[in-house]
Design brief:
Distance between the termini: 27 Å
Structural class: alpha/beta
Shape: globular
Radius of gyration: 17 Å
Oligomer: single chain
Order of helices and strands: EHEHEHHHEEHHEEEEEEE
């Protein structure tokens, strides 16, 4: 079984599909974990959410998803009218939800699914989460603040305390855009800046093959895929 991770898709349906096909991910045999922030900013938030939900249901043993801070903000909006999400790409997402899910019941079912996702997933090798982990809290009782951890905050934590909290498993995450993917033996940030106001020539969406420690980047401005090695430091 190969292990793949993708995070911070932000409504890039085209890029997501192209990467899955390019890497020849076999959902019957391979594992795919989605690290949250499926939605917002991009034009196809509804399509991305619909496809990932379908994959999670059809291949429940091999495809998993965790919640990101954008799904959290979406929940605040639909549950209690908090408009923060709308200023972070929510307007476009709402518009696409209406196109993708003309049936209100279906739309609400997808929103409920996305806002009810777990904050982490673990297998025999890694722990997967959206932004980080708090080593001072049990893994199964993490505060929702971890959905919002900055890279600076997360990477200031001692490696030893993080590995103690995960029983030796490295943490695979996203949330803060990076130009290249590095692994420090404990943490790996896989957010390539999809559909953000990031450095234009480097903005992209990454699919990480953790089994071979390589990743594919869909360059959104150039509409091409590059293969790169994960760097160690």
């Amino acid at each position: 079984m190969r292990k793949f991770f993708i995070t911070d898709i932000h409504g890039d349906y085209r890029g997501f599909k192209m990467l899955i096909e390019h890497a020849e991910v076999d959902f019957e045999k391979d594992q795919l974990v989605v690290g949250g922030d499926m939605i917002s900013r991009g034009k196809d938030s509804g399509k991305v959410m619909k496809l990932i939900k379908l994959l999670c249901e059809q291949y429940s043993n091999n495809v998993q998803a965790v919640i990101g801070n954008h799904e959290e903000m979406m929940g605040w909006y639909f549950q209690r009218g908090n408009r923060l999400w709308l200023s972070h790409g929510g307007h476009d997402a709402v518009a696409d939800f209406k196109k993708t899910f003309p049936n209100e019941e279906q739309r609400q079912a997808h929103i409920y699914w996305a806002t009810s996702l777990p904050m982490y997933f673990e297998d025999d090798e890694f722990v997967y989460t959206h932004a980080g982990l708090n080593p001072h809290e049990p893994l199964d009782a993490q505060s929702r603040d971890i959905l919002w951890m900055s890279e600076g905050e997360f990477y200031s934590l001692p490696k030893e305390s993080l590995l103690t909290s995960t029983v030796g498993k490295p943490i695979i995450h996203g949330h803060t855009p990076v130009e290249r993917i590095y692994f420090d033996g404990v943490r790996m940030n896989c957010d390539m800046g999809s559909n953000t106001y990031y450095v234009e020539e480097e903005r992209g969406l990454g699919l990480i093959n953790l089994s071979e420690m390589v990743y594919f980047v869909y360059k959104q401005t150039q509409k091409k895929i590059e293969k790169r090695k994960i760097l160690y430091y």
